[in-house]
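re: that chain from earlier
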Amino acid sequence: MLAIRPARDPRADARRALPQARTIVEGDVSTIAGSRLVAEQANKLGRFDAVIHNVGVGYREPRRIETEDGLSHVFAINVLAPYLLTALMHKPKRLVYLSSGMHHGVDAHLDNMQWNNRRWNGSQTYAESKLHDVLLAFAVARRWPGVLSNSLEPGWVPTRMGGLGAPDDLEQAHETQAWLAAGKDADALVTGKYFYHLRRRAPNPQTQDVALQGRLLDMCEQLSRIPLPA
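^ sequence. v structure.
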């Protein structure tokens, strides 16, 4: 699992936060070059049993911020970075993509993912990016039948992103992704499914649209010039 934290020495900061980690890689996944660097470091460690795509930024950005690649900051981190790491890292046995309950109430808007011609709405931008993450998980499940690829919502929990007033249980927030990454029971050995607190949940119906899944992959490839391997 990749942890990115702002600090003068990111590697030392991550080591303090995760003293049990065997090793740490670092990089700026807001850029295509940065995601490539992270993937290169990860590949030197070999093939992982599981990769949990948990990197992301929240819904409080007051305006559209553009990355050095000319992309929306939220899209670059929440959607393109998971796509790039999936495409560039050795295929793991399992992939887990974190979404959000907010994805249920929005449209994919693949024709304007960058918010170039829409009035900025940070909350909606975040929600759409989490819908895209489910589309990505399900697209990978179809493309790579030998890899278990699933998505989940951890709940609205009291973190710096969620806020202290969030009503869900922080203790349960990590359980589903850990279970999908390492669980041995039949319920965890599935692919192309969506979960909430260890139970299957119906995702936004748009995520089941195979054509929409394919369009997202095509658009990520066009933006990055990096294809998802067959």
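The chain is about 35% helix and 10% strand.
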